[in-house]
Amino acid sequence: MSRPRLKEITQAVDKVAKQKEKIMYQQGDVLIKKVAEIKGKKLNHLTLAEGEVTGHFHSITKGDAELYEHEGTLFLKVIDDKVELTHQEHDVVVLPKGDYEIGIIKEYDHLSREVRNVAD
User: Fold this and answer.
1) Which of 97, 88, 80, 38 is nearest to 58 (CA)?
2) Domain range for residue 67?
3) Domain count of the fold of the chain
4) Low-confidence residues in the chain, pLDDT < 50
5) For residue 99, is it within any domain?
6) At 78, is the secondary structure helix, strand, or coil?
7) Is 16 within a domain?
8) Of the candidates 34, 18, 29, which has an alpha carbon nearest to the alpha carbon of residue 104?
9) How far apart, in whole angstroms, are the C-alpha atoms of residue 6 and residue 93?
10) Are 7 and 15 in contact (CB under 8 A)?
11) Phi/psi of residue 18, each to 5°?
12) Structure confidence by residue, pLDDT tens digits, 54-71
């Protein structure tokens, strides 16, 4: 294999590896972003978010994981090879082993010129 071709392959592999680091998942209004590390105090539950409108909730229901809170932000540590995130009105999301930051999708109301959390 020629040197220029090897360099192209190496660059392509590096690009795919960087894209994997930026993986995000979404279930309704909950956004789950892979992070390098988690912070905060361990919580004694696995509920990522509760619905403001329906009373439903996003929760880890299968697999071993831990939930942490740091300055108002939730972090999830998936310990098993995978866990299942469930919600009463959404499909199950399977999250692989790793560390994640949990966020809520925002929406912008052009009429009121306000940014607010999406209501689930």
Assistant:
1) 88
2) 24-117
3) 1
4) 1, 115-117
5) yes
6) strand
7) no
8) 29
9) 37
10) no
11) -65, -35
12) 677 889 999 999 999 999
